[in-house]
Amino acid sequence: MPTISQQVPILDSSGQRANGFVRVSASRPFDTAQGHITTAWAAALVKDGIATMNGAPWYLPPTPEGVFLQLEQELDGEQTIKFRVYVPDQEYITYSELLSNRAGIALGWGYYAWDLSGEADFPPEALIGDLGYDSVSGDLWRNDA
Prior knowledge:
Layout: E1 3-5, E2 20-26, E3 30-32, E4 35-37, E5 41-47, E6 50-53, E7 56-57, E8 69-75, E9 81-85, E10 92-94, H1 95-100, H2 103-106, E11 113-115, E12 131-133, E13 140-142
Parallel strand pairs: 1-10, 11-12
Antiparallel strand pairs: 2-5, 2-8, 3-4, 5-6, 6-7, 8-9, 12-13
């Protein structure tokens, strides 16, 4: 359950300190010694570039190996961006490091896996080679454009 360290503020596309929300939730239910976890989640308020949970440092929910987090980023009124991230087993991680652990890179694929459920196409920030999947139908696409 890493804490997101705030060594570097979260900036918007114009280079200004971002404001908005960041949310994560487990990609699937899992069992622990204490019981069955149906939804492990965490949400952070981003104010002036710093993400916090009720004024305290933002931390990620514990997830076992093989369970990814769905990350939703809604900053400065822009459209919500969704993708999957792999949570490394370490005490602290920066937000940039979390984003560089998007699921594909963590698995050695070298590209992102985007949740395109209900979407017509990859978002503009998707890279060539990124994967897209529909969590309802199970369809999988590769960004070739």
